[in-house]
Amino acid sequence: MKRAINGATTMPYSLEEDLHAAATAGFQGVEIWWDKLVCFQEKHTLIELKSILKDSMISIAGICPFLVSPFRNTKTLRADFLQALRVSSELGCDLITVCPDFRPMDMSREDALKWHADAFAWHAEQAAELSIRLCIEPIARHTLVPGPMEAITLIESAGNPKNLGILMDTFHYMCSSISVETVRKIPIEKLWMVHVNDSERGAIEELKDENRLYPMEGYIDLKGYMEALRSIGYNGYLSVEVFRPAYWQLPIVEINRRARESLDQLIAL
Q: Rounded to two decimals, what is the model's pTM?
């Protein structure tokens, strides 16, 4: 499995700092946080970014995250997404993470899923024109897509586009009570990214992103998840994604060092 770090783990830092620190720590890839890429382009060109990537010998593991919602300002969301497709194509990145919206309180689950299926079909069609894959991220305790099986059903409802797959996040899966056995049922050809993190002890219903920890420092059954991933033959990126404000106060070199060390421990299980 390949080692990566997600830009959310180093949220206050710039894209340039992310890339240099990740390369120094020995990561093979970086999941670029879209807002950081937007800020980068305010003063720099994509040609400059490609030069930084080449010099640091690090790859773009993916670009994230984008909300797919048929309920909000669809025009604005889609314009942002189309811009991301163009940028991703120019950078040679073929993977974008997309997140489903929550169900409106006045809409049935069935209707909300149908609206989402249509929205994901449109997004997949646009991305396919540039040979870009879209990775659906199930969210903890989500009203529509809390786990991988719901994501697979959504993909099927969207017409089963070949460029639509799923993402696994150990924190989200734990909070949605996704078992190791369920992970073993994920079609390997549809699992395109894995976010790894750990969590403080607490009531599942109350745990939030700020409760995340580096892998191997908390209470998630990471050994079980890793065994399940190996059993289905997953060999893609393991990307450390930790939304923890306390970590963000540390120097970026320290964040990357601890993330890499914890990831090495996880892979060694």
A: 0.97
